[in-house]
Write a structure and sequence with these properties.
Elements lengths: L2 E7 L3 E8 L4 E8 L11 E2 L1 H19 L6 E8 L5 E3 L9 E2 L7 H11 L1 H8 L8 H11 L1 H6 L2 E3 L1 H10 L3 E3 H4 L5 E2 L4 E2 L1 H7 L8 E3 L4 E4 L2 H7 L6 E3 L2 E2 H8 L7 E6 L3 E7 L11 E4 L6 E7 L2 H12 L1 H10 L3 H10 L9 E3 L17 E3 L7 H25 L6 E5 H4 L2 H11 L3 E4 L4 H13 L6 H8 L2 E5 L3 H30 L2
Parallel strand pairs: 1-5, 5-14, 5-15, 9-12, 16-22, 22-23
Antiparallel strand pairs: 1-2, 2-3, 4-7, 6-8, 10-11, 13-14, 16-17, 17-19, 18-19, 20-21, 23-24
Helix pairs in contact: 1-6, 2-3, 2-4, 10-17, 11-12, 11-14, 12-13, 13-14, 14-16, 16-19
């Protein structure tokens, strides 16, 4: 039997999973690390924490599994996107990494837009300038920490720094690089035009690979520390959502997934590059060679339900602790007893502003239609339906762009709820399925490593072999009709409130 390792470098922890070639989990380990917020809206991490977590969890899964080093044929890395890692001429980390959720770069985003032009920027990078992306972070360091910028010789993304520690190679791959805003996304290469206009030296950037390509092998000192073989190959890997797509089988035209975690994502595979000229959704290269994905984001998805649970369902939290259950079990029971439309109550899930389709940091959450007849059960269902309407907004934009979704997978915490899955099926008007495998990103990059190592013929063939459908929800026609009526009202609420949101944001 041959084995593969998938590393998922998250914001709170790194998780490493050892799989056999059939996708069965042999061992798993995770290690947490801190997030630093030196100022309001800033977010940083120490890249060495990621590297140490990767080294220690690799060693642990090999030790616990008892698998021989020579039988581990490949390793893939997934991770949080957009983070900026800067190395000096000695390959030492210059400053803490400014990570994906950092919001300090609004002025730099304006600078990028002015220098390149909004329309041209979207044509090349498939996205407008966003504070989360890496390019604005590079400019921020140049503008505010010129000495650090002068010392910089290498710019890497988080997972690619871990790759450097494991292999000694400066490499990245197309899916993660797409989120730097320096990549010519249609042509899958660094954009000389963007780099020139922003004054960024191309030599600082890593070599670009496809996600399944071999980028290096394990360094001798790493092999000694971890128990890996020096012959184990390390492939390009993928950004977190691109890796999750492979781990849930979203590798062909017509397939998509919805994930409901803290935020929500609708992610669709596309065999051709498709860009929204309005910049409402992200288009990135995906982990399948020569293909792309389009992704809409709802900022406050699972966050909305967690917020309501934590503030208004304390009795459920206590009951769950006493009975050894999950508070969400009681919430699902409540929602199942409440009619569609929640007795004419709607919820706008904009607790953290919004990305798709509004791209508005100032909009906020709203209960609309609240009356004396409404109960907590109505409000709970309204929260879940409101998040689902927002995700439907994302899916509708994909349809508008000509991307037809025939099969939708559900994953993330929300995907575990049969009530939420049925809502999505009814609103989308298509089947919503789950897979038995629960290690989406880690499994995804392990599959990519298997392709790179020659164990699987292709990403598609690997997914056919490894993944199995678990649960399936069929849309109910009358429910779809009801939700269409409510969604029409939902869509009209944001334009009606847009100016009030702006006014509210200015109040002290």
């Amino acid at each position: 039997m041959r084995y593969l390792i998938g590393i998922d470098l998250g914001t709170s922890a790194t998780k490493t999973v050892l799989f056999d070639e059939d996708g069965a989990i042999m061992a798993s380990a995770s290690q947490e690390y801190p997030l630093y917020q030196p100022q309001n809206g800033w977010a940083e991490q120490n890249p060495r924490d990621w590297a140490n977590a990767a080294l220690e969890t690799i060693a642990k899964v090999i030790r616990e599994s008892g698998v021989a080093a020579e039988d581990i044929k490949g390793l893939g890395i997934s991770g949080q996107m957009h983070g900026l890692v800067m190395l000096d001429e000695k390959n030492e980390v210059i400053r803490p990494s400014i990570i994906w959720c950092d919001q300090r770069t609004a002025a730099e985003c304006e600078e990028i837009t002015q220098k390149i032009g909004r329309e041209r920027l979207i044509e090349i990078t498939a996205n407008p300038a966003l504070t989360g992306f890496t390019a604005s972070k590079i400019l921020w360091v140049r503008n505010h920490e010129p000495e650090n910028y002068k010392r910089c010789r290498h710019i890497l993304l988080p997972k690619d720094y871990v790759r450097f520690v494991l292999t000694g190679e400066f490499a990245t791959e197309v899916s993660d690089a797409s989120g730097m805003q320096l990549l010519d996304v249609p042509n899958r290469r660094w954009s000389d035009e963007v780099l020139e206009k922003l004054g960024i030296d191309k030599s600082m950037l890593a070599k670009i690979y496809e996600s399944v390509e071999v980028t290096g092998t394990i360094l001798p000192e790493v092999a000694e520390k971890t128990g890996l073989s020096e012959k184990t190959i390390v492939v390009g890997g993928a950004g977190d959502n691109a890796a999750a797509a492979v781990g849930t089988g979203i590798v062909r035209e017509g397939r998509a997934f919805t994930t409901i975690g803290t935020s929500g994502v609708v992610f669709a595979h596309s065999d051709k590059v498709t860009i929204d000229p309005k910049g409402r959704v992200h288009t990135f290269c995906c982990a399948v060679p020569g293909a792309w994905h389009v992704m809409g984001v709802t900022q406050g998805a699972g966050l909305s339900l967690k917020w309501f649970r934590d503030n208004f369902c304390e009795d459920y939290i206590r009951k769950a602790e006493e009975e050894g259950k999950d508070a969400y079990d009681y919430i699902n029971e409540d929602v199942a007893q409440t009619p569609l439309g929640c007795n004419k109550l709607l919820y706008l899930p904009y607790l953290m502003g919004e990305r798709t389709p509004h791209l508005d940091p100032d909009c906020r959450g709203v209960f609309f239609g609240l009356s004396a007849i409404h109960t907590r059960k109505d409000m709970l269902r309204a929260v879940m339906e409101g998040v689902s309407y927002s995700l439907k907004d994302c899916n509708d934009i994909l349809k508008e762009m000509g991307i037809q979704v025939e099969e939708m997978m559900a994953c993330g915490g929300g995907g575990k709820s049969p009530i939420w899955r049925q809502m999505l099926a009814d609103m989308y008007g298509c089947k919503v399925k789950t897979v038995t495998a629960k290690e989406g990103p880690a499994l995804g990059v392990a599959i990519l490593a298997g392709v790179g190592a020659g164990i699987y013929e292709s990403v598609e063939a690997a997914c056919d072999k490894v993944l199995r459908i678990d649960k399936e929800c069929e849309p109910v026609g009358k429910n779809t009709e009801t939700y269409e009526k409510y969604h029409k009202v939902f869509k009209n609420l944001y334009p009606s409130l847009k100016e009030q949101y702006k006014e509210l944001a200015t109040l002290s």
